[in-house]
Design goal:
With about 110 residues, the protein is mostly beta strands. The chain has one domain (about 5-100). It has one helix spanning about 60-65, and strands spanning about 5-10, 15, 20-25, 25-30, 35-40, 50-55, 90, 95-100. The longest helix has 9 residues, at about 60-65. The model has no long low-confidence stretch (mean pLDDT about 90).
């Protein structure tokens, strides 16, 4: 499948806001702006693979969530009321895909 200089790309599509990705125990790095993709040529196994994607949520979403909880169950403590309409979109927003590219193919 990877003959003739082909490469394999892990494409996270769209996400909000920061992704930290590990594939088969190898840290791929942190993505915080498009394109949300990694070259995984040589890292993908023909058998089982383990993909771990951690998405960092927004502080504003934590505040929105805490505002809905009883005071004793809140995680955050702030001294000023902040008007936040939310929650704000966060996470992986479309399917994660593996894409096969030829050496000369442009994105």
């Amino acid at each position: 499948m990877l003959a003739d200089g082909r490469r394999l790309e892990l494409d996270l599509g769209q996400l909000r806001n920061v992704a930290d990705v590990t594939l088969n125990g190898k840290q791929l790095g942190i993505l915080w702006k498009p394109p949300y993709a990694y070259d995984v040529t040589g890292l993908v196994r023909s058998a089982k693979n383990k993909l771990k994607i951690e998405i960092v949520n927004l502080w504003a979403n934590r505040l929105v969530g805490d505002a809905k909880l009883a005071r004793e169950k809140r995680v955050t403590r702030i001294t000023q009321k902040v008007p936040i309409g939310g929650p704000i979109e966060s996470g992986i927003l479309c399917p994660v895909q593996l894409r096969l590219h030829t050496r000369n193919e442009t994105k």
